[in-house]
Amino acid sequence: MLDRLSPQAPDPLLALIRLHAADPREDKIDLGVGVYRTEEGATPVFRAIKAAEQRLVDEQDSKSYLGPEGDIGFVNALMPYIFGADATMGGRLAGMQTPGGTGAVRLAVALAQKAGVRRIHMGVPSWPNHAQIMADISLEVATFDHANPDGIANLDAVLTAIRSAGPDEAILLHGCCHNPTGVDYTLDQWAAIAEAIAETGVFLIIDSAYQGLGAGLEEDAAGMRLVLAKMPEALIAYSCDKNFGMYRDRVGALYMLAETPAGLDAITSNANALARASWSMPPDHGAAAVRLILRDPDLTKVWLTELDEMRGRMRQVRAALAAAGTAGRIDLTPLGTQNGLFSVVPVSKEEVVRLREEHGIYMAASGRINIAGLTMANLPKFVAALAEVTG
Ligand code: PMP
Question: Which among 92, 160, 264, 319 would be 20 to 30 A from 344, CA to CA?
Answer without folding.
Answer: 160
